[in-house]
């Protein structure tokens, strides 16, 4: 109000001055009024108005120049200050005392300020430490996120050092094209991710930790329609490498390709290192055999054996050509999950895709460096030995030992002793002693199937389809309907949980 009144007063003064000047300009020296035309009067008024506008613009321009000069001077001082601080931080050496002092100050601030939210990763506010570690802050929204700058020379040196390094090859995926070997089927180089379905999952509300495996953390997920699924995600301590990414890709791809089988676990979604698959509340076949084995009837042993063999035969014949394009690589009772009256095969991330030699027109073997346990084929315990899909057939024989006896193969023997015996072609010595009635018709069928699987030379080992044909024939002869839903003592599997 005061400023506006002052402007009005000044306006009145200016108008009075202009009116006096106007009066003086309209009179001659002797006081007689001048006679001017209306055009001249309008031109003179326009000239005065333009002069006032120009003078006002010049004044505002001078003020703007002064502001620009002040801004440039302040920016120059700020740049000089930052350069000086940079030199001070590079020349300074971080000390433990300095870091502890800064951390203690940060802790005091946290305690005094209740609204302060602690970041997920503690931020060490030490510019000298950041400079010495070559850390650069790139993300203004994450106070704890820094990047380590690697120069081009360091990058070239690392690449040269790792060119022939075992560690470099260790983290790379197994090549599908190598020499004369190429993928047996085009789908072996593909994948079918469905990330949208994965992103719809509310992790906090729908998921809970169930268990952990060798590579994955297993979650139980409740879907919006009430259905229960399993979510497999690569364990936190596992490296997010290209090799592990390809491992998850193979696992998901094989479940997708075998979706036509009733004895392979179903897959619903795959994205990166995560999968959504079918849930089986009955647990694994291994858990069932070791806990409720005495409740299994003799005909049910043959039913279980035929179902697990059917799953392996389906896996080894995805294209219907009779030539296996993949291996499971970890064939055991723990890989079979009970779902709706059937034991379904799962967990294909240790398997390998079989390649084809375009010159010899034969399947190309592969190698896996380290193999433990006691259920594997002899060639798996020889370092660098070629391996084929026949290793799964030997694993089938070891699985049938648990079905017929209720105990794991080579029960009571250390891994080292059992592996040495397998390499020498020795079979478990007291297998028949572990069976309550080895001369019974069902046990005789299963023991013969085990002998068919345990052929020492991989090239002479029969295919899974041959073992399946034998078991189906014997089941038909004995009047056992192997493909019916599995029941325990006349009750559905819901009584077993």
What can you tell me about this protein's structure?
The chain has 497 residues and is an alpha+beta fold. 44% of the residues lie in helices and 11% in strands. The protein has a five-stranded antiparallel β-sheet. α11 packs antiparallel against α12, α11 packs antiparallel against α15 and α14 packs antiparallel against α15. The longest helix has 54 residues. It is elongated and about 135 Å long. This is non-specific serine/threonine protein kinase. It catalyses: L-seryl-[protein] + ATP = O-phospho-L-seryl-[protein] + ADP + H(+); L-threonyl-[protein] + ATP = O-phospho-L-threonyl-[protein] + ADP + H(+).
Keywords:
single chain, 497 residues, alpha+beta, Phosphorylase Kinase, domain 1, Transferase(Phosphotransferase), domain 1, three-stranded antiparallel sheet, 14 strands, 44% helix, 11% strand, disordered N terminus, non-specific serine/threonine protein kinase, Kinase-like_dom_sf, transferase, protein serine/threonine kinase activity, kinase
How far is the first residue's CA from the last residue's CA?
A: 84 Å
Order of strands across the main sheet? 4-5-6-8-7
Average the pLDDT over all residues and give the rounded result.
77
Strand content: 5-15%
CATH class of the domain at 284-497: Mainly Alpha
Question: Which regions are unreliable across 5 or more consecutive residues at pLDDT < 50?
Answer: 1-35, 86-96, 109-125, 490-497
The main β sheet shows up as: 5 strands, antiparallel
Annotated CATH homologous superfamily of the domain at 284-497:
Transferase(Phosphotransferase) domain 1
Cα-based radius of gyration, to the nearest Å: 41 Å
Number of strands: 14
CATH fold-level assignment of the domain at 284-497: Transferase(Phosphotransferase), domain 1
Encode the helix/strand succession as letters: HHHHEEHHEHHEEEHEEHHEEEEEEHHHH
Question: Which class of secondary structure composition applies to the elements?
Answer: alpha+beta
Tally of individual helices: 15
What CATH architecture of the domain at 284-497 would you give? Orthogonal Bundle
Give the CA-based shape. elongated
Percentage of helical residues?
Answer: 40-55%
């Amino acid at each position: 109000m005061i400023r506006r009144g002052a402007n009005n007063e000044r306006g009145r003064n200016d108008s009075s001055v202009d009116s006096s000047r106007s009066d003086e300009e309209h009179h001659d020296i002797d006081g007689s009024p001048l006679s001017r035309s209306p055009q001249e009067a309008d031109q003179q008024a326009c000239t005065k108005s333009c002069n006032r506008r120009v003078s006002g613009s010049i004044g505002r321009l001078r003020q703007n120049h002064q502001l620009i000069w002040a801004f440039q001077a302040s920016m120059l001082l700020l740049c000089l200050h930052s350069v000086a601080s940079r030199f001070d931080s590079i020349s300074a050496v971080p000390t433990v005392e300095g870091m502890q002092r800064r951390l203690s100050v940060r802790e005091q601030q946290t305690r005094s300020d209740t609204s302060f939210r602690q970041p997920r990763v503690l931020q060490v506010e030490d510019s000298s430490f950041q400079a010495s570690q070559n850390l650069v802050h790139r993300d203004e929204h994450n106070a704890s996120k820094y990047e380590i700058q690697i120069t081009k020379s360091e990058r070239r040196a690392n690449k040269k050092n790792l060119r022939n390094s075992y560690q470099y090859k260790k983290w790379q995926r197994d090549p599908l094209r190598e020499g004369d070997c190429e993928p047996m089927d085009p789908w072996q180089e593909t994948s079918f991710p469905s990330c949208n379905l994965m992103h719809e999952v509310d992790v906090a509300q729908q998921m809970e930790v169930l268990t952990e495996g060798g590579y994955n953390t297993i979650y139980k997920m409740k879907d919006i329609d009430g259905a229960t699924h399993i979510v497999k995600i690569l364990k936190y301590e596992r490296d997010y490498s290209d090799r592990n990414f390809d491992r998850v890709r193979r696992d998901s791809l094989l479940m997708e390709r075998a979706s036509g089988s009733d004895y392979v676990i179903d897959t619903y979604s795959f994205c990166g290192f995560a999968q959504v698959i079918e849930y089986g509340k009955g647990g694994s076949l291994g858990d069932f055999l070791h806990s409720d084995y005495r409740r299994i009837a003799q005909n049910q042993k043959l039913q279980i054996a035929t179902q697990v063999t059917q799953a392996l035969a389906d896996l080894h014949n995805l294209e219907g050509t009779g030539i296996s394009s993949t291996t499971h690589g970890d064939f055991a009772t723990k890989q079979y999950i009970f779902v709706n009256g059937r034991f379904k095969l799962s967990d294909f991330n240790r398997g390998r895709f079989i390649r084809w030699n375009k010159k010899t027109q034969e399947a190309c073997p592969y190698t896996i460096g380290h193999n433990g346990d006691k259920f594997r084929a002899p060639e798996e315990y020889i370092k660098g030995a070629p391996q084929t899909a026949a290793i799964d057939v030997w694993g089938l024989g070891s699985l049938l030992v648990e079905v017929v006896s209720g105990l794991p193969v080579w029960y009571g023997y250390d891994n080292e002793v059992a592996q040495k015996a397998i390499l020498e072609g020795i079979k478990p010595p007291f297998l028949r002693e572990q069976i309550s009635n080895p001369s019974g018709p069902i046990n005789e069928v299963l023991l013969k199937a085990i002998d068919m699987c345990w052929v020492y030379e991989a090239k002479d080992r029969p295919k899974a389809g041959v073992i399946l044909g034998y078991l189906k024939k014997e089941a038909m002869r004995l009047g056992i309907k192997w493909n019916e839903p599995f029941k325990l003592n006349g009750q559905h599997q819901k009584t077993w949980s």
